[in-house]
Amino acid sequence: TMSATTITGLMKIGDAAGFLSCSRKTVYEMMHDGRLPWVFLGEDRRIPVAAVLDYCDEHYHRNPADRAEVA
User: 44-48 and 39-41: which strand pairing?
Assistant: First the structure.
């Protein structure tokens, strides 16, 4: 099986926001507080695709019973 950490590539901030169904501001906040790692590509910030997929994997609950275990 392929884990998210084996996927390479970088996403623009807007692409990450679209993928996560949130605003660009939220993505910047996630980058600032360390929830999403990022790199500079020239003068632009980029987020590794694997980091976005890992974030989704860690925060996506497949059924309501899973949420009770986290709380």
Answer: antiparallel
> Which position has the token pair 């309501």?
64
Q: What is the pTM of this model?
A: 0.74
Q: Please give the structure tokens belonging to residue 17.
A: 């926001």
Largest distance between two CA atoms of the chain: 44
Q: Helix, strand or coil for residue 46?
A: strand
Return the SS3 of 21.
coil
Spatial distance between the Cα atoms of 55 and 48, rounded to a whole number of angstroms: 11
Q: What does the pLDDT profile of the chain (71 residues) look like in tens digits?
A: 455 556 789 999 999 999 999 999 999 999 999 999 999 999 999 999 999 999 998 887 666 665 555 54
